[in-house]
Specification:
The complex is a heterodimer. Chain A is α/β, with parallel strands linked by helices. In chain A, 33% of the residues lie in helices and 30% in strands. Chain A has seven helices and ten strands. Chain A has a six-stranded mixed beta sheet with strand order 6-7-8-3-9-10, with helices on both faces. Chain A has a four-stranded antiparallel beta sheet with strand order 2-1-4-5, with helices on one face. In chain A, a hairpin with a 2-residue loop joins strand 4 and strand 5. In chain A, helix 3 packs across helix 4, helix 3 runs parallel beside helix 5 and helix 5 runs parallel beside helix 6. Chain A is globular. By secondary structure, chain B is α+β, with helices and mostly antiparallel strands. Chain B has 17 helices and 14 strands. In chain B, the strands form three sheets. Chain B has a six-stranded mixed beta barrel. A two-stranded antiparallel sheet of chain B has the order 2-10. A two-stranded antiparallel sheet of chain B has the order 13-14. In chain B, a hairpin with a 5-residue loop joins strand 3 and strand 4. The radius of gyration of chain B is 31 Å and the shape is elongated. The chains are: A alpha/beta, B alpha+beta. Bound molecules: adenosine-5'-diphosphate and magnesium ion. The site of magnesium ion has 4 residues of chain A, from helix 1.
């Protein structure tokens, strides 16, 4: 159903200044993502995956063309509106987890909710629910330094999921994980995708991730060179 | 959110301990310097007021011009009338007459021949009239080393050092050789009843203290004095009040052409302390300014490093949808907290040291052996109201400024740029 597209990218070009010349990282990208997709942007390093994900995540703006996320054009958003969009509709997962070391697991997951007007009781309910989804109820009081890589990435999934966003953007989420943990967190995200109908968009070149994708968008040198639906999933 | 920030600060010692330490040290030094300076300059003013100029001083114009030479031949006449006038015009003030005089003191032996002799600097003050405040003003009782206070005319106190040099004993006669107001030689016998030590090198070298009536008699200075000193209520010097009194007084005599007409001056002009006072004020200001500058730079750098260390945190907070301004503000809150804690600790330490220096004092007598300035031999700090809050200026200002400067990076960078830096 194309009319329910959460993300519409049209004729998107992104250039970075490089000395006197310009470097074009994304060349005329056209893409749509619907609610509930489990999609991946796949390509070699330097192909522009992170750049594209950052634009969709309203962390960066297009040089030309448009990216409309949740009905709002990323280019036209004030910093405040962009922050609002991220806070209410987007969750991020990073390769390096980016957990705050001085805070406990619980506090890390709670952080996004602190920006909202919400009672402590309600916050607690959501945080615990999110930690239950990722199976970390027994590590609530631990600090990130006391956790394994897999556990850290599960905390960051919980942090992305705690506000029940429509879209989760995951940039190389398995790059620092071994095979067992990679499968573990992918299964977890697949389950969340099924149960909560959350849209997941990955940027990856990891075969283990690609196996789970239901849609594979191939990027090469800033251009979309393939967009296929993977059958039997 | 505030709770979140405080938790972070308390747990991340890199973030709190080092900046607090810097602030503490800076505040500590500022507070201590302030107390030290106000003590030293306060003591100088106080000493000068007590022993030399009062808060305001009336002299004859001629005397005022050569005041350094204590020219008693140019002394102020008709002082009783002036004193009465001043007393009724400013009843809350204390007005006293003084005669400073130079001369030789001669200690005769049994036959009346000179046993020993020395030049002296004499102070004729009101020692004997009931209710006189002068003994208190000049700190005479506390300064008494041996013997007792003069109780009747003809009795004097001499500096303990001088007494030793002259080998004079209590109860013995000392003859003052000096010149009268009219220029003729005079000799007057006194009895030494006590020795004193003021702790002011300029006086302890050779002071004698006598009752002013005796000196008026000895120097033929009836109804005359070197000067009339006025002290403001509660003995607290206030330059503006003093200026008002001086201007009003001098206006009355403006038209007189007589070089012996009275003229009034105030403490800071008469003693050259004005320069010192300005100096004290600007030194304090400069100190605070320098500390703010140095600490801001240190904290700015610390903030930059901390900021780099914290790009991850800033990045993730942006990603979860915290607006830049919100993050920037929370960093400022952090710095206020740090500045506040550092300022409190620094102020407590500074106050502790200042209080210690106020009680114990720093003996500088070795350095002021030959000075004629009215400097006490022991420097003491003085804890004033300002001491309690002055440290908060450099403390809070530098942390906030340091953080504000390093935090600008958050604003200037594109969000995506912050992320690039956070990836490595
Ligand atoms: N801020 C930037 N300034 C300049 N060049 C950039 C910037 N961000 C990314 N690039 C360049 O754009 C290209 C794509 O980068 P990126 O999207 O990070 O690739 P990927 O995530 O697929 O590895 C790279 O060649 C990279 O060097
Ligand atoms: Mg990348």
């Amino acid at each position: 159903m194309n009319n329910s597209a959460l993300i519409i990218v049209t004729n998107l070009v992104k250039t970075f200044p490089m000395g006197k010349r310009e470097f074009t990282a994304l060349k005329d990208i056209n893409l749509k993502f619907n609610q509930g997709e489990f999609a991946g942007i796949v390509g070699p390093s330097g192909s522009g995956k992170t750049t594209l994900l950052n634009i969709i995540g309203s962390l960066d703006i297009p040089s030309k063309g448009e990216a409309v996320v949740m009905g709002q054009s990323v280019s036209g958003l004030s910093p405040k509106k962009a922050a609002d969009l991220r806070n209410h509709h987007l969750g991020f997962i990073f390769q390096t987890y980016n957990l705050l070391q001085v805070y406990t697991v619980y506090e890390n997951v709670e952080l996004p909710l602190l920006l909202r007007k919400m009672s402590a009781v309600e916050r607690k309910k959501l945080v615990l629910q999110s930690l239950e989804w990722v199976g970390l109820m027994d590590k609530i009081k631990s600090r990130p330094a006391q956790l394994s890589g897999g556990e850290c990435q599960r905390v960051s999934i919980a942090r992305a999921m705690v506000k029940s966003p429509e879209i989760v953007l995951a940039d190389e989420p398995t790059a620092n994980l071994d095979a067992k943990n990679s499968h573990n967190i992918l299964q977890m995200m697949e389950k969340l995708n099924r149960e909560l109908n959350t849209t997941f968009i990955f940027a990856t070149h990891d075969e283990k991730v690609i196996k789970y994708l239901r849609r594979k968008i191939s990027l090469d040198d800033g251009k979309v060179v393939g967009d296929e639906i993977v059958k039997n999933k | 959110m505030i709770k979140f920030i405080i938790k972070g600060l308390l747990r991340d010692h890199h973030r709190s301990l080092f900046p607090i330490l810097i602030v503490t040290i800076g505040v500590w030094m500022t507070v201590f310097m302030q107390a030290y300076l106000s003590g030293v300059f306060g003591d100088m003013i106080d000493t000068t007021a007590r022993f030399s100029t009062g808060h305001v001083k009336i002299m004859s114009r001629a005397y005022a011009e050569y005041a350094d030479q204590v020219p008693n031949d140019m002394a102020l006449m008709g002082i009783e009338q002036i004193m009465t006038d001043m007393q009724s015009e400013y009843p809350d003030m204390t007005w006293v007459k003084r005669i400073n005089f130079g001369g030789l003191i001669d200690i005769p032996d049994d036959e009346g021949e000179t046993r020993s002799q020395a030049p002296v600097m004499g102070y004729g003050i009101d020692l004997l009239s009931p209710g006189s405040t002068e003994i208190h003003t000049m700190n005479v009782v506390k300064s008494l080393v041996r013997g007792r206070m003069p109780e009747k005319p003809g009795e004097i106190l001499i500096s303990d050092l001088l007494a030793e040099r002259l080998e004079v004993n209590l109860g013995e006669t000392a003859t003052l050789l000096s010149s009268t107001m009219y220029g003729s030689m005079t000799m007057h016998n006194f009895t030494v009843v006590g020795t004193i030590k003021f702790g002011i090198m300029a006086m302890d070298r050779g002071a004698i203290i006598a009752d002013i009536s005796d000196i008026q008699l000895a120097l033929d200075m009836e109804d005359a004095a070197g000067g009339i000193l006025g002290y403001l209520p509660n003995r607290i010097y206030d330059d503006n009040t003093a200026l008002g009194i001086v201007e009003r007084f001098n206006q009355q005599y403006e038209d007189e052409d007589d070089e012996f007409a009275p003229v009034m001056g105030k403490l800071v002009e008469l003693s050259n302390l004005g320069e010192y006072l300005n100096y004290a004020g600007s030194v304090s200001t400069i100190m605070v300014f320098i500390f703010v500058l140095i600490m801001s730079i240190v904290l700015w750098n610390a903030g930059l490093l901390g900021g780099l260390r914290r790009y991850g945190e800033v990045g993730i907070r942006l990603a979860i949808g915290e607006p830049k301004g919100h993050i920037y503000r929370s960093l400022i809150y952090e710095s206020v907290f740090i500045g506040f804690v550092g300022s409190i600790i620094g102020t407590v330490l500074g106050l502790g040291c200042a209080y210690w220096l106020q009680v114990v004092g720093l003996d500088i007598s070795a350095f002021v052996k030959n000075t004629s300035m009215m400097i006490p031999n022991v420097f003491r700090a003085s804890v004033t109201t300002e001491t309690y809050y002055i440290g908060f200026f450099p403390g809070l200002f530098s942390t906030v400024l340091g953080t504000a400067l390093s935090g600008i990076g958050i604003y200037k960078r594109q969000t995506a740029q912050l992320f690039k830096e956070l990836e490595v």
